[in-house]
Amino acid sequence: MINMLTGKKGLAKTSQTPGKTQLVNHFKINNCWYLCDLPGYGFAKASKTSRSKWNSVTLEYLRNRTNLQYVFQLIDSRLPPQKIDLEFITWLGENNVPFVLVFTKTDKLSKRQTILNTELFKTELLKQWELLPPVFVSSAEKFDGRDEILAFIEQSNLVFADANE
To answer: What are phi and psi of 11, to 5 degrees?
Structure first.
C-alpha cells in the first residue's frame, strides 16, 4: 500500500512470501506526515517465536502511539472473512484504536465478486459492530482506490491539525 500511495515502486519492500516486514518502518510524506508499515500477522513464513515478537511490537506500538490517527487494516478481497482479521479488528475496537478497512487485490477479481466479498465481510462485522469503519477497495497494480484513500488521509490530517492547534 505504501508504494501505491506514494507512487514510488520499491519504496516499501513487497514479496510473494508473507513476513518481509519485520520492523516498524516510517515513511515521511511531503515532509509533514508519516505512513508506518507494521509487521503483519498470521501468514508470515517465519517461526512462531519471530511472529510472536512482531505481534507484540505491533500491538505495543498501536496501544502507545499517541499521535496515531488510523490503522489501515489490509484485507485480501479474494478471501472470505478470516478469523485472524476479525480478531485483530476486535482487538482494535477493544483498545480504542481508530481504523479503516482497505480491501486489497481487487484487480484479481471481477467487480461483482469484489462487491460480494466485501459485503460478506461487512455482514460478518455487523454481527459485533453497530457501525462500520470507513471502507476502501484498492488495487496496488491498477492504483484503484488510491485517490480516495489519499483524500481520506488529507482530510484526517486537517482534522488532526485543527484539533492540536
So the answer is: -60, -50
Contact 48, 89 (CB under 8 A): no
Give pLDDT tens digits for 22-66. Answer: 677 888 988 888 988 887 665 555 566 655 666 788 888 899 988
Alpha carbons within 13 angstroms on the beta-carbon side of residue 144 total 16
Task: Record the pTM.
Answer: 0.86
Q: Which are the contacts of 153, defined by CB distance < 8 A and separation ≥ 6?
A: 5, 33
Treating both helix axes as pointing N-terminal to C-terminal, what angle do 83-94 and 111-125 enclose, rounded to 10 degrees?
A: 50
Backbone angles phi, psi at 74, to 5 degrees: -85, 125
Question: How many angstroms from the chain centroid is the CA of residue 157?
Answer: 17
> In the CATH scheme, what architecture does the domain 2-163 have?
3-Layer(aba) Sandwich (3.40)
